Amino acid sequence: MARCLVISVTRPVTEAVYETEINELEDFYEHLECGCMDVANRKIGSKRFDIWVDDEGLLKDSPIISAVSITDGEVVPMLAGNLIIANHDLEGNTTSLSDADIKMILEHVFTRVSVQDHGLTIYPYLECEY
């Protein structure tokens, strides 16, 4: 069982960032809302974390960018769709985030406004580095 943080681009913004317990593989798919996932290791603040993501997120008709890198004022899209952020041990097993980890991650979660045909939508996004 691992305590993780989810950043959802499919929930209302007031419910988009939440903690959850991941117990088995199906839990990842449920929170990511996808059929094919991948894990990327990225630096958030001063620490590296595993970020589970929809492997086909950028291939969707209207992908929603959920993680970006900002270097010298340039915003570079990194990941799309819902994200699950966790730690891992030396054997590669998913492990829980600490309270300090969650606090640091939340300091790097922001919102953006998207203007579309049906009006304004607010999405969360994570700022991270390779």
Tell me what the structure shows:
By secondary structure, the chain is mostly beta strands. Strand 3 (37-44) and strand 4 (47-54) form a beta hairpin. It has one domain (2-127). The strands form 2 sheets. Strands 1, 2, 3, 4, 7 and 8 form a 6-stranded antiparallel sheet that branches. Strands 6-5-10-9 form a 4-stranded mixed sheet, with no helix packed on it. The longest helix is centred in the first third of the chain and has 8 residues, at 25-32. The chain is globular and about 45 Å long. It has helices at residues 25-32, 99-106, and strands spanning 2-7, 17-22, 37-44, 47-54, 65-71, 74-80, 83-88, 94-95, 109-116, 119-127.
| Fraction in helix | 10-25%
Tally of DSSP β-strands: 10
C-alpha end-to-end distance:
27 Å
- Following the backbone from N to C, one meets helices and strands in this order, namely EEHEEEEEEHEE
Mean pLDDT: 94
Describe the sheet with the most strands: 6 strands, antiparallel
Radius of gyration: 14 Å
Strand content: over 45%
Structural class: mainly beta
Shape annotation: globular
Helix segment tally:
2
Number of domains: 1
Stretches with pLDDT under 50, minimum 5 residues: none
